[in-house]
Specification:
This protein is α/β, with parallel strands linked by helices. It has two domains: 1-48; 51-223, Glutaredoxin. Helix content is 38%, strand content 14%. It has a five-stranded mixed beta sheet. α3 links the parallel β2 and β3. The protein is globular, with a radius of gyration of 27 Å.
Length: 223
């Protein structure tokens, strides 16, 4: 009889252990999921806030084929037509042009491979830039002008005074592909309006101007 009683008690112990094991497994899976999400968000944050390269930026290069204004500041943005991050830079440029009210000349130079077809001149990004009042859009064949201006990352924006001196160099977005109020925009608007600027340079967030020839429009931005 005692032996039989012991056998009847055993299933009760197992019935308690099974839910505990399930709860433990669920907790472990939940923890793993939370860690994976946290790591993924951290990776995205690091990616979005990692700036691109900036080369040696001179005063207005004497060999440039771009016509610099001699009676007002001149802005030059170097861009890649297949860089999705640069949409935000073009959007911010439109805001800047609206705020300076014709007191500045502005160019956007789009990288174009020498052997490329017409599709490089018909991108949506280029169309958006051309639609901004007061902005002149030109092709930068093989990135010659970008090298003259020391630009290595799409969205790099430079502001020069009427004598060709460099006033500002950097990006006009706060992070990669993020439009909105930012230090670069504030600095340029202040300088054009003859007001003191908090800074003369910022990080540039965008694609490399030199290694996206074969990439499609939906490719992620590169450092």
């Amino acid at each position: 009889m005692q032996f039989a009683a012991q056998n009847q008690a055993a299933p009760k112990v197992n019935s308690l252990q099974t839910p505990r094991k399930k709860l433990l497994a669920t907790a472990l899976l939940g923890s793993a999921w939370i860690i994976s999400v946290a790591l993924g968000l951290g990776s995205l944050f690091n990616y979005g806030t990692t700036p691109g390269q900036i080369g040696l930026v001179p005063a207005w290069p004497s060999v440039s084929k771009i016509g610099r204004s001699h009676d007002r500041p001149t802005l030059v943005m170097l861009a890649h037509p297949r860089c999705p991050c640069t949409r935000a830079s073009i959007s911010e440029l439109a805001q800047i042009m609206a705020r300076v009210q014709g007191r500045m000349d502005a160019y956007v130079l789009f990288y174009k491979p020498r052997q490329s077809g017409a599709e490089w001149d018909e991108s949506a990004l280029r169309g958006s830039a051309a639609a901004i009042p007061g902005v002149k859009v030109l092709s930068d064949v093989d990135g010659v002008e970008a090298r003259r201006f020391g630009a290595e990352t799409s969205g790099h924006t430079l502001l020069f005074d009427r004598d060709g001196g460099l006033l500002f160099s950097g990006g006009i977005t706060q992070s990669r592909g993020h439009a909105g109020e930012n230090a670069g925009e504030r600095a340029i608007v202040s300088m054009v309006n003859n007001q003191p600027a908090a800074q003369t340079g910022t990080f540039v967030f965008g694609c490399s101007l030199g290694n996206r020839s074969q990439l499609g429009d939906k490719a992620r931005c590169l450092k």
